[in-house]
Amino acid sequence: MLLPNMKLKVPECEPHIALDHAQGELCFVSHAHSDHTSAVRSLKPLFATEETLHLANAKTAHPIPKNISLLGAGHMLGAAQLFARLDGQSLTYTGDFKLSPSLTCKGAQIKECDTLVMESTYGSPSMRFPSREEVLSHMEKWVNANSSKNAIIFGAYTMGKAQEIVKFLNDFCGITPIVSSRIDSICAKYEELGVRLLRVRSGTEESNEMAKSPFVAVMPSRSVNLQFGSSLSGALNMNVLTALASGWAHSFRLPVDRAFPLSDHADFSEMLQYIDSASPKKIVCALGRGEEMAMHLKKLGYNAIADSQIGERIAMQATLK
Ligand SMILES: [Zn+2]
83, 154, 206, 317 — which has fewest CB within 10 A? Predict the structure, then answer.
């Protein structure tokens, strides 16, 4: 995902604040996905939620500056939006966000603001997902219909989505899955933050025993495809079904037996809903399909621009004037 190189200038806070990148004296880290945590790796002074600091292995944190508050973003555990009051004006930077709640975090909070810098990953009218309840119901039916006779391997992003799939298997299907060691380590951190996740780490005696009969596993999405399923089927002498849970399942044919459009990002409808509730005077479309989203918003009568149209390393107070 392309990140904007935007900075925020807050009165009474001398350094400009880097939004999800490390090119600033002080950095805001919206959530723990690695494409947003360069400030942690660069050991820059930063602020984030307690959950994000824990999941991203941040050693130290800067106090949240005056005039700034963090709002839940609904994207994954700990994900936050930045809300700032500047010279009598207000600004929200959403970072990655989603309005509907997931099984491991609440949906995004919305506050009225003058300027909205909004994530636009799915900023296209063609990107409208079925409701999360509907997708989870399809997943439940599919798992229940197939788990007694097949090994099922779910592919998911190791942080955030994988933990939601484990929670789904626990709560909807009564299944304790085998998980990869990396996913297990992140599940352990989720548990330290209060989210219970029943799972068995792969490579243990217990997981080897489980794999002698049909089982369900959650693995990193990059390694799960039809070819992997076929090789595993030969090795286990058991039929193997592969599945992915991703918003991209809505628009692409993914190379697995079954793909579910379970997304951690707002779709086009949720983006419009957010704008309607936040009533911004100006919208900056960032993170993804910014140009396309800004074009559609302009057609709908909104004052919108893409972040690429306002130049790199801008001081965001300029957009408030
Ligand atoms: Zn993310």
Answer: 206
pLDDT value of position 187: 98
176 beta partners: none
Q: How far is the CA of 31 from the centre of ligand 1 (A)?
A: 7
Phi, psi dihedrals of residue 24, rounded to the nearest 5°: -155, 165
Ligand 1 geometric centre to CA of 270 (Å): 17
pLDDT at 314: 43
Give the Å distance between the CA of 206 and the centre of ligand 1.
Answer: 32
Sequence spans of domains, the chain: 7-127+265-320, 132-260
User: How many other C-beta atoms are found inside a 10 Å radius of the C-beta of residue 61?
Assistant: 16
Round to whole Å and give the CA distance between 28 and 58: 12
pLDDT digits (tens, 9 = 90+) for 37-96: 999 999 999 999 999 999 999 988 999 988 899 999 999 999 999 999 877 899 999 999
Distance 33 CA to ligand 1 centre (A): 5
CATH number of this structure's domain 7-127+265-320, picked from the four choices 2.40.170.20, 3.10.350.10, 2.60.40.10, 3.60.15.10 = 3.60.15.10
CB atoms within 10 A of CB 1: 12
Rounded distance between C-alpha atoms, residue 274 and residue 266, angstroms: 9
Residue 290: its pLDDT value, please?
A: 86
Contact yes or no for 84/10 (Cβ under 8 A): yes
315 confidence band (pLDDT: 50, 70, 90): very low
Fold of 132-260: Rossmann fold (3.40.50)
Measured in angstroms, how far is the CA atom of residue 37 from the centroid of ligand 1?
10
The CA 141 to ligand 1 mean position distance, Å, reads 28
CA–centroid distance, 155 to ligand 1, in Å, is 17
Q: How far apart are CA 50 and CA 228, in angstroms?
A: 37
Instruction: Evaluate if residue 318 carries a pLDDT over 50.
Output: no
13-19 and 7-10 beta bridge pairing:
antiparallel
